[in-house]
Fold this sequence. Notes:
Layout: H1 2-26, H2 30-56, H3 64-88, E1 100-103, H4 113-116, E2 121-123, H5 127-135, E3 141-146, H6 152-165, E4 173-178, H7 189-200, H8 207-210, H9 214-220, E5 224-229, H10 236-249, E6 256-261, H11 262-272, E7 279-283, H12 288-298, H13 307-317, H14 322-326, H15 330-341, H16 356-378, H17 387-403, H18 419-422, H19 424-448, H20 463-483, H21 491-513, H22 521-543, H23 562-591, H24 606-629, H25 641-662, H26 665-676, H27 688-698, H28 700-708, H29 712-725, H30 733-742, E8 746-749, E9 752-755, H31 758-766
Parallel strand pairs: 3-6, 3-7, 4-5, 5-6
Antiparallel strand pairs: 1-2, 1-7, 8-9
Domain NACHT: 140-263
Transmembrane segments: 7-27, 33-53, 430-450, 462-482, 494-511, 523-545, 566-588, 608-629, 650-669, 689-713
Protein name: NACHT domain-containing protein
Amino acid sequence: MRGRWVVTWVLCGVSLVILTMLGMALGKDAASTASSIIAMAISLFGVLSVWAWRRSGQQGRSTSAQLVQAQDALARLVDRQWRREAGLRQLNSPAPLPVSWSDTSEAGICDHPELVGGTVSCRSDQAEELAAAFRRLPRRRLVVLGTAGSGKTTFAVLLALSLLRTRQDAEPVPVLFTAASFDPAQENVHEWLCRRITADYPILADVPTYGPSAVDDILASHRVLPVIDGLDELPEEVRAAVLTAFSRVYDTDAPLILTCRTDEYTDAVTATGALAHAVVVEPAGLATQESLRLLRQATAAGLSQQRWSCLADHVNEHPGGAVSEAFSSPLIVALARSVYAEGAGNPDELRDFTSKEAIEDHLLAALVPTVYATARRHDPAGRLWSPEQAHHYLAQIASGMQLRGTTDLAWWQLYNWVPVLSRTWARCGAVGVLLFLLTLVGFATGQALPEFAPEKLGSLEWIPGAVAVALPCMCWLAARIVNRPGPRARRLTGAARTALFGALAFAVVGVTTDRPDDTAPYAYAIACVFFWGFTFVLVLYSAGLPFPPLLPRRGTLTPSNRPRRLLLAVATFLGTTALAVAAFRLYALVVMTPDSPRSRPAPPVELPWTHGLILGALVGALQALLYWTRGTTSEQEVTDPVTTVRADRLVTLVGCCAGLLLVTLPYNLNAVLQLADPAKPGPAYDNVLTAFVCALLGVGPTGLMLAMAAHAWPYYTAARLLLATRGRLPWKLQHFLDDAHRLGILRQVGPLYQFRHARLQEHLARTVRVPGPRNPSSSPDLQPGPASLR
C-alpha cells in the first residue's frame, strides 16, 4: 500500500513540473495556464488515489481471521447445497440404503499398510459411524471403489454431509468435485481446485471480507477436503495422469476422498502406482430382504404396499435367482423405488426376467416415462412436456454427452454441439458475416434519418468490409492464445496482441479503399493501426478476448459489501470524468490558441469543458458499472446452472452496452477536436451529438460484436436455438433441465448437470440412432466427429 502511494505522489509531481514547463514555453495567459495545470494535477491525483486505495487491499495474504471466516462460509454453502441435493436425490427417503463398506480385498491397489495407518468399516445408513470412521484415519485419505451402480457417489455425499453436520472448529470442509473438469496437462491439482472453488463458490473471491488469497490459503493449509467423484469417467490415459497428480504432485499430507470403479482404478494403479497414504474401501452387496423392506416403507401406506409381498415370496422361493441378485444393487433398488414405489407399476413383473442385467435395462427404460407420467397426474397444469417428449429430449442430451465422452452437462459448452460454433474457422466466419450485416444496417439507418446527411457518414462507408476482415482475425488469434499450452496470457497482454492483429487487418483494407491521394500508404497504415488498435483495446480490455470462455462470468447488481463497492464505483466515475475534463481543458489552452491560423477566431473555452465532461462522464459511468456488476455474489446464493446463466447474461448485456459505446470514443474525441479546429480533415459535424450518432451507427456494431464474442451466454443462446429448431432440444432448455432435476432424472453438481446414474445416460443414448461416418476429408476441420447431434 505504501509503495502505491509513493508512485501516486511521484507521478503527480512529475506531471505538475512538465505541465508548468510546457505552459511557460508556450507563453500562455498565466491565470488560464495555472488553472489548467492545477485542474490536471488534481484530477490525476484523484484517479491515482482511487487506484492506490482500490489495489492496496489486494496485496499480501489473507489474515488468519479472514481464513477462518472463509472456511466457515464455505462450510455453510456446501452444507446448504448438498443437503438440498440429497433431498432431491432421495438419499434419505425413507432412509439411506444400508450398504456396508470395508477395506478392499484386492491385492496391489492400496498403499503400504504402515503408511496408511488405519482401516475403515462402516455403513451408509449410520451417519455418525461414517464420520467417525473417516476421522480415525491418520492421513484422512480414502479411495471408494465399486462396480457401476454400487453407491460410490451416494457414499461420498453422505460422508460429506456427515462430516459437515459434526464438524469441529478448524476441521477441513468437504467439497465435492467432478473429475471430468480436470486436465493435468493444462494445470496442476492446486490450480484446478482453486479455480473450481472460486467458480462454484464465488463469494470467497470477496477480497474486502476474506482477503486476496483466501481460496489459495485454505487449500494450502489443508482446510478443504476435496471429494473427487468419477475418476473412472476420464479417458484411460488421463485417468492415470490424474492419479499420478494426486499421488505425487499434490501434498500427500492433504486430506482427500476419491471415487472410481474398481476395474478402472486397478488399471490406473498398474500404470502409475497406488494413491499415497490412502485407505481403499469397497461395498458389500445389499441384503435382498432389507432392500424390499425399504421399498415397502417408501411406498405410500395402504393396499399399494402389498404389491411387494408377491415379490418377497418369490425371493424366498428363489434365493439365488435374478431378482435376488438384482436387489443387492443400490442402483436397481433406487430405480425400483422410482418406478414402483412412487409410480403405478406392479413389481411382480420383475419375476419374468431371467438376469440382473435384464431387470436393470427394464427399470432404466421405464424410469423416465414413469416419473413424468406420475408428475403429470399430480400436477397436470404444471407439466409442459409429455413423457414421450421428455424421453426424446433426454435421449438427445444423453447422446450428445456420450459422443463427447463426458457425464457433465455444462451449458456454456453447449456451443460445441453445433459445427458452425464449435469450429474456429466457421465461428470466425459467422461472426464476420453477422458484423458486416449489422454495420450495413447501421449505415442504412443513419442515411435514412433526415438530420444526418449522407456526407456525414461518407468517411465511414468503407468500414463494413474492414471490420468484416478484422473481427474474424481477432477471433482466430484469440482462439490461438486461449488454446496455447502453458501459462495463460495476462489480460492486458492478450487484449493488446489481439487488438494489434485486428488493427493490422483493418489497415490493409483501409489503405486500399480509403487512403487519400496525398497520404503515403505507410503513414496512413500506421495511423490506422494506432487509431483502431486503441479502439479495439478499449473494448477487449473491458470485455475480454473474443473466444468462448472456459467458465461463465459471475456478476450481480446487488453484490456483497455494497457500501464499499458503491464508494469505489463513484470514485471511479468521478476520477475518470475529472481527468477527461482536465485533458480537454489543457488541449484548449495549450494546443488551440486564439491566434492559431487553423482555428476559429477566439473559440470559447467552455466548449472543451462541456465535451470533456460529457465524454468523461460516459467512460466513467461505463467503468463504474462494469466494476459494480462484476462484484461477488451474495453469501446466501448457492451456485447452480440457472443462477450462472442469469449472471452471465447480466454481465454480457452490460459488457455489450459498454463495448457499443467504448468503440465510438476515439471517433467522438476526433469529432471534438474537429469542432475546435475546423481546418482538420474529416466530415464537418454540426455538434457532438451528430458525431456520436454517426459513430454509433457506423462503428458501434463492432464494439457490440467484440464484447458479445467474449461471453458464454451468446454462444449458449445461439446453440440452444439452433438445436431447438431441429427438434433436438426444448425451447425452454433451462426450465426443462431444472424440471428433470426436481423429478430426480438429473442431478446437480455446482453449475453442472449430470444424469442420475451413468448407466441411465448410457441407456438413453443407445435409443438415439447415430449415423455412420461420412467420407473422410483431408481437412481436419471437415473430419466427421461429435460436433453435432444428428
